[in-house]
Design brief:
single chain, alpha/beta, Aminopeptidase, 9-stranded mixed beta sheet, 6-stranded mixed beta sheet, binds ligand BES, binds manganese (II) ion, binds zinc ion
């Protein structure tokens, strides 16, 4: 879909479908809705007076102008109470409106920056949320939404005030590029693990690098062995697919810019290894590369937006498979910084591949490193699926910024403690640490494990409960069954606002 900005009166646009909004309790709409209503001879007020339109959340009203304006249909999306409006409500309302428009056969939608007027949301963010809502809501796999008459071709944000056009245009540009990053992440996570192998992910990264001018390094087993990445290689030992350690770099060599490193867990399938997972729901473990997918999406976006940062994206990718050559519980392995790790569970593989990636990040002397990983079921137990990701952070500024970006994007992250007490849980008799702290506090012990491999301001984001929507009952207008692309918008918002 194409996203555009256009100046003028919404009722004069030539789109086949107009989408305006209504707050709950409003009987005399103002702004674009009011202007459109007047152009329609009071049709919207009539719907309100008849009780056909209440402005409630999830409400989508449709009316037919029958020649009184160029558009074929008008849709009115409910935003709920004006006082309770936030960006997420705009996203959800727009998602429902756009999806309904598509069902009705719309090809060209014209709409406004929902919430920027009476809702008092900042204009840039309102435009962003409007586009995000449409894009997230309209996303589907090849097997979803098969009964739609076709795709929406253009979405135009119409702004009356000429003075504001620059800002609207910039918000449209930034958001449409970011949404392609989210689509990329969703597509990668939705792919089956026999297709989205480490080599496939490396090929995707190469294409992105070639298209948008990023530097790329892809390391295989031999490359990792030269660098003594014993933790990454231990997980890869049982893998039939060649592991790939992928590094994308934006603005490489620009020592005048701040360096930020993103790290994403790229387990293309997590069977648990010798510590085999139960068969039930094991198929969900195709999403164990969602951290890498989010980093890929964020790197593509950062490059296309030409963000003034030296940005490195590290994606250690491998399967975790049971195999005669696989690593065993009780093995002692050595990570690339020399720390030894006693394997308790081959299913605690994410922290192992991240360990070598976090050590690899040290060479850049970064101002911040952020890793995203579907790391622990314990995090899902603590925070709930699709509620918030767990955040562990060694730097207050970094933590505050990530929490703020989480709030803005509604890709929420919630601070959890990095107490040294968790170290006792991973104490080993035969190595510097074990790779599993057991059931209680499992999210804390995984984070304190990772911390041993960092020497820079660092944030670890456990996205285990956020990457894949698996239950109908948990669906939202923005995240339906399948991959969510969680993390891309969070990272892009954080990076765009980087200002240490
Ligand atoms: N990939 C899983 C974590 C996971 C669980 C992701 C649920 C998404 C949904 C991870 O590799 C894992 O198996 N973690 C173990 C760690 C334990 C063995 C210490 C877990 O959480 O049970
Ligand atoms: Mn695992
Ligand atoms: Zn895993």
């Amino acid at each position: 879909m194409n996203y555009r900005a256009s100046q003028g009166n919404i009722y004069e646009t030539t789109a086949d479908t107009l989408i305006v909004n209504l707050f709950a309790g409003v009987t005399e709409p103002g702004g674009a809705t009011g202007a459109l209503d007047r152009a329609l001879g009071g049709a919207i007020r009539e719907m309100i007076a008849n009780g056909d339109l209440r402005g409630k959340e999830k409400e989508v009203g449709v009316l037919y102008p029958r020649g009184s304006i160029p558009a074929k249909r008008v849709m009115i999306i409910g935003l709920g109470g004006a006082d309770a409006l936030d960006l997420e409500k705009v996203r959800r309302a727009m998602a429902l409106g756009a999806r309904r428009a598509r069902e009705l056969g719309a090809k060209h939608i014209a709409t406004v920056a929902h919430g920027a007027g009476a809702g008092r949301l900042p204009l840039f963010e309102a435009v962003q949320a409007t586009i995000e809502g449409a894009a997230l809501g309209l996303y589907h796999t090849s097997q979803q939404d098969k009964d739609i008459p076709g795709e929406i071709e253009t979405l135009t944000i119409v702004e009356l005030d000429e003075q504001k056009m620059g800002e609207v245009q910039e918000a449209v540009r930034v958001t449409s590029i970011a949404m392609e990053g989210v689509y990329l992440a969703r597509d990668l996570v939705n792919l089956p693990p026999n297709i989205a192998t480490p080599r496939y992910l490396a090929e995707q990264a190469r294409q992105i690098a070639a298209k948008y001018g990023l530097n790329i390094t892809v390391g295989d087993r031999a490359w990792a062995a030269e660098r003594k990445m014993g933790a990454f290689l231990a997980v890869a030992k049982g893998a039939g697919e060649e592991p790939q350690f992928i590094v994308l770099e934006h603005n490489a060599g620009r020592s005048d810019l701040d360096t930020v490193v993103l790290v994403g867990k790229g387990i293309t399938f997590d069977s648990g290894g010798i510590s085999l997972k139960p068969a039930e729901k094991m198929e969900e473990m195709k999403s164990d590369m969602a951290g890498a997918a989010a980093v890929m999406g964020a790197m593509q976006t950062a490059a296309r937006l030409n963000l003034p940062l030296h940005l490195v994206g590290i994606m250690p990718c491998t399967e975790n498979m049971p195999d005669a050559h696989g690593y065993h519980p009780a093995d002692v392995i050595t990570a690339s910084n020399g720390l030894t790790i006693e394997i308790i569970s081959t299913d605690a593989e994410g922290r192992l591949i991240l360990a070598d990636a976090l050590v690899y990040a040290q060479q850049y002397q970064p101002k911040a490193v952020i890793d995203l990983a579907t790391l622990t079921g314990a995090c899902v137990i603590a925070l709930g699926e699709h509620v918030a990701a767990g955040l562990f952070c060694t730097d207050d500024w970094l933590q505050d910024r990530l929490v703020a970006s989480g709030k803005t994007t509604h890709e929420r992250v919630w601070p959890m403690a990095l107490w040294d007490d968790y170290k006792r849980k991973i104490a080993s008799l035969v190595a510097d640490m074990t790779n599993s702290g057991g059931r209680f506090g499992g999210v804390g012990s995984s984070a304190i494990f990772l911390k041993a491999f960092t020497n820079y301001p660092w944030a670890h984001i456990d996205i285990a409960g956020m990457a894949l929507m698996t239950k109908k009952a948990q669906e939202t207008p923005l995240n339906r069954l399948g991959a969510t692309g969680f993390g891309v918008r969070l990272l892009v918002d954080f990076l765009r606002k980087w200002q240490p």
